[in-house]
C-alpha cells in the first residue's frame, strides 16, 4: 500500500485502539496477556511527511483477567501506579518507508524511567480522515525498575502490541 497521509493534527480513536502486553512466566510455561483499558494520544503529520506525537496509557487500567495479579502489577514490585500512574511513549519521529512500513523513533517512560525505543509499525489502513497502525516491539522490564522475579519465574522480554486508529481533527 502506498499512501500519502494528510498533514495536520490527528487524535487517537480510543474506542478503535488497543494496547496490550504479553510475557511468558512460570518458567516459560504460561503466557500472561493484558490490555490497557485507558489509552489516549495525539499526533501531528508535518509537511515533509514525518510525524510526532504522544501515546499515554493509564498504568492502573491494565487488565490481565486476574484481579490478584492485576493488583500485584499495580504495586511497587511492577508499575507502582500510586507514584507513576501513566506510561508514555513520545514519538520523536515517524516516517513512512517501503510502502506500508513506518519507522518509529521515540522515548518510552515507565515508572518515571525513560529509555529510547524504536520499532517498525505497519500502516494497515489510511484515507483522508483516518489511519490505522499495527505495532509490536519488545521491552526489557528490568530497564524500567521492574526486577521482581520470585523464584526466577519471570524472565525474558515483554512484548507490547498495539493497534492504533487516529482520526484527523478539523483544521
Describe the protein.
23% of the residues are buried. The radius of gyration is 17 Å and the shape is elongated. The protein has a single domain, classed as Beta Barrel (Lipocalin), CATH 2.40.128. An eight-stranded antiparallel barrel has the order 1-4-5-7-8-9-10-11. The mean pLDDT is 89. Helix content is 5%, strand content 55%. By secondary structure, the protein is mainly beta.
Produce the secondary structure layout.
Layout: E1 8-12, E2 18-25, E3 30-36, E4 39-45, E5 51-58, E6 62-63, H1 67-74, E7 86-97, E8 101-110, E9 113-126, E10 130-139, E11 158-168
Sum up the structure in keywords.
eight-stranded antiparallel barrel; 1 helix; 171 residues; Lipocalin; mainly beta; single chain
Question: Helical region count?
Answer: 1
What's the CATH superfamily, by name? Lipid/polyisoprenoid-binding, YceI-like
Mean pLDDT: 89
| N- to C-terminal distance | 26 Å
CATH second-level architecture: Beta Barrel
Q: In CATH's first tier, which class applies? A: Mainly Beta
Please state roughly what percent of the residues sit in beta strands, choosing from under 5%, 5-15%, 15-25%, 25-35%, 35-45% or over 45%.
over 45%
- Write down the overall geometry: elongated
The CATH topology turns out to be Lipocalin
How would you sum up the major sheet?
8 strands, antiparallel, barrel
Question: Could you list the spans in which at least 5 consecutive residues all have pLDDT below 50?
Answer: none
User: What is the alpha-carbon Rg in Å?
Assistant: 17 Å
Structural class: mainly beta
The secondary-structure element order is EEEEEEHEEEEE
Amino acid at each position: 500500500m502506498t499512501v500519502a497521509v494528510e498533514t495536520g493534527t490527528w487524535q487517537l480513536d480510543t474506542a478503535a485502539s488497543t494496547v496490550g502486553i504479553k510475557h511468558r512466566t512460570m518458567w516459560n510455561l504460561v503466557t500472561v496477556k493484558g490490555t490497557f483499558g485507558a489509552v489516549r494520544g495525539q499526533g501531528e503529520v508535518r509537511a515533509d511527511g514525518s510525524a510526532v506525537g504522544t501515546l499515554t496509557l493509564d498504568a492502573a487500567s491494565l487488565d490481565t483477567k486476574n484481579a490478584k495479579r492485576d493488583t500485584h502489577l499495580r504495586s511497587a514490585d511492577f508499575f507502582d501506579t500510586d507514584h507513576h500512574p501513566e506510561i508514555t511513549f513520545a514519538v520523536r519521529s515517524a516516517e513512512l518507508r517501503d510502502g506500508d512500513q513506518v519507522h518509529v523513533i521515540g522515548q518510552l517512560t515507565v515508572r518515571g524511567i525513560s529509555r529510547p525505543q524504536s520499532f517498525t509499525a505497519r500502516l494497515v489502513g489510511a484515507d483522508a480522515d483516518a489511519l490505522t497502525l499495527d505495532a509490536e516491539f519488545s521491552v526489557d522490564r528490568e530497564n524500567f525498575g521492574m526486577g521482581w522475579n520470585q523464584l526466577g519465574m519471570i524472565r525474558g522480554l515483554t512484548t507490547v502490541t498495539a493497534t492504533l486508529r487516529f482520526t484527523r481533527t478539523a483544521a
